[in-house]
Design brief:
Layout (H helix, E strand, L loop, with lengths): L1 H21 L14 E4 L12 E5 L6 E6 L8 H6 L12 H6 L21 E5 L11 E5 L2 E5 L1 H15 L5 E7 L1 H8 L1 H7 L4 E7 L10 H9 L16 H9 L5 E6 L3 H7 L3 H15 L6 E6 L21 H10 L7 E2 L2
Parallel strand pairs: 3-4, 3-7, 7-8, 8-9, 9-10, 10-11
Antiparallel strand pairs: 1-2, 2-4, 5-6
């Protein structure tokens, strides 16, 4: 009998150890309330292959979480990555030292002392950008003689379990981003919503209008970066304007907000359009993908500028709507939240 028991123990032991490893719980992040802390995250990679992390700034009394994805261009070949250097932090990486000197964390949207800041009562998470793939990729490419780790999506997958463990009582998640981060917020919506199944998840895309780029650029981006478009997002891999429609229609209880400059001089260049043509493409996107949607709205200003959130407290439309009040309506789910279109 004793030999039989020992044999059973010997046979079952490896399986027991495996099960314990699989059930290991993520350790919550230790940080000072209402102060920024940098945290290295295992499994993350910058374009140079080095590990990166996130910045966290918790408000222990809040059940709202603001996750902000940093912008910084994009790249998809040797010229854009290494000659033009059109994507931030590809070769340098992004670690604690970069975070300490990054002015983004001092922006108005992270200032809790401002009584009209829509994000003032939330916990904050800052996701840096160093992958060149609008936070959407999972691939390693060789351009010329150098490698680029396009790992934006897999970085989000590595970060989210730590956020779930750190903010277990979250009821509302506000997923935002500027420029590359705006596209990343939209591309990562389903990943974040799956991580926080008991919370509302809403998106604010600052200068991230999903127009279809010129020529074969969209296919190049998706292929080189390894972006996975949801199978249910019909024709989204060839028609980028279908993606915001897919999100709004599939998730009617979530709010999808877009901030857009009509002739954005940064996006028009990346997308291969003249300023006038980009404006035409943008207005067409708003008409086809946002108009008539109860849960997808836009704030459009005429001009060639790029991004809004850095001036959240100072921008007003020519129709008299302040950006700050519009974003507050998005946060609140106000019945008065509506499209802003400058004539």
């Amino acid at each position: 009998m004793r030999k039989l028991l020992l044999l059973l123990l010997f046979v079952s032991l490896p399986f027991a150890l495996t099960a314990c490893g699989d059930d290991k719980e993520e350790t919550p992040i230790e940080s000072t309330p209402k102060a920024w802390t940098w945290v290295d995250v295992a499994g993350t990679e910058c374009g140079n292959g080095e590990q990166t992390g996130i910045g966290v700034n918790p408000d222990e009394g809040s059940t709202d979480l603001y996750i902000y994805l940093q912008g910084g261009g994009a790249c998809w070949d040797e010229q854009t990555c290494f000659t033009l250097r059109s994507a931030a932090n590809i070769t340098t990486g992004y670690k604690a030292a970069q975070f300490q000197t990054d002015g983004t964390k001092d922006a108005y949207m992270f200032n809790r002392t401002k009584g009209t800041n829509p994000f003032r009562d939330m916990s904050y998470v800052f996701v840096p950008y160093c992958t060149g793939d609008v936070h959407g990729g999972d691939a390693v490419q060789t351009y010329g003689t150098q490698q680029v780790h396009h790992k934006g999506a897999s970085n989000m997958a590595a970060v989210l379990p730590k956020l779930v463990a750190t903010f277990p009582g979250v009821k509302r998640v506000f997923l935002g981003g500027s420029s590359a981060g705006a596209f990343g917020a939209q591309l990562n919506y389903e990943r974040v919503a799956a991580a926080f199944p008991d919370a509302e998840v809403h998106v604010l895309a600052d200068s991230g209008q999903m127009v279809t780029p010129a020529g074969t650029l969209l296919n190049t981006w998706l292929t080189h970066w390894g972006v996975k478009i949801p199978a249910a997002c019909t024709n989204c891999a060839t028609d980028f304007t279908r993606f915001p429609v897919y999100l709004a229609d599939t998730y009617p209880k979530s709010r999808f907000a877009l901030l857009a400059w009509s002739r954005d001089n940064v996006l028009s260049t990346f997308f291969g359009y003249s300023a006038a043509n980009f404006e035409t493409q943008t207005l067409s996107l708003l008409s086809s993908s946002y108009d008539g949607k109860a849960n997808a709205k836009y704030f459009l200003k005429r001009g060639t500028q790029h991004t809004f959130l850095g001036s959240l407290d100072t921008i007003t439309s020519t129709t008299g709507v302040t950006l700050e009040s519009w974003v507050q309506q998005w946060v609140d789910g106000s019945a008065t939240w509506s499209n802003v279109l400058e004539p």
